Amino acid sequence: MAGEKVLVVEDEASIRKFIMINLKRSGFVVYAAESGEKALEMVNTHKPDVMVLDIMLPGIDGFEVCRRVRKIMPELIIIMLTARSQDIDIINGLELGADDYMVKPFNPKELVARINTIFRRIKNKT
Fold first, then answer.
1. What pLDDT digit, counting tens, does each position of 73-123 carry?
2. How many Å apart are CA 12 and CA 108, to the nearest integer?
3. Where on the phi/psi map is residue 46: left (φ > 0), alpha (ψ -120 to 50), or beta?
4. β-sheet with 5-9: strand ranges across
5. Contact present, 5 and 47 (Cβ < 8 Å)
């Protein structure tokens, strides 16, 4: 899928840049936020199709960002990408509305594949 807008929410600059480079190479339009507050602002401004969301963020954490975004943009695809790998975190993320959950370290090609899979599923429903 090309041209879809992805918002990467990651406070660690090196990881954020790594994700962005790989998404851009795959044809996505990419925006970035380094905090939960900035993510909420950018969701309203840029209306992304996908949000790649870390949990451990300064200020508002990823769980709360997910909860708030689900209320204002229920159609937004949310993929949590985080170092938190305990079952309780995965279950909590999915129950709060994440469409998928990936644990760091991760393969950037897998992230792109998961995003494309969700878009394919959506296109087949329409």
1. 999 999 999 999 999 999 999 999 999 999 999 999 999 999 999 988 887
2. 16
3. alpha
4. 29-33, 5-9, 50-53, 77-82, 100-103
5. yes
Q: How far apart are CA 26 and CA 2, in angstroms?
A: 7
Q: Identify whether the C-beta of residue 93 lies closer than 8 Å to the C-beta of residue 56.
A: no
Q: Which residues pair with 50 in a beta bridge?
A: 6, 77
Q: Report residue 66: phi and psi, to 5°.
A: -60, -45
Cβ(107)–Cβ(94) under 8 Å?
no
Alpha carbon of residue 60 to chain centroid: 15
List Cβ neighbours of 92 (8 Å cut-off, separation of 6 or more): 63
Structure tokens at 17: 């840049």
Longest dimension (CA), the chain: 38
Contacts of 12 (CB under 8 A, 6+ apart): 54
pLDDT at 2: 58
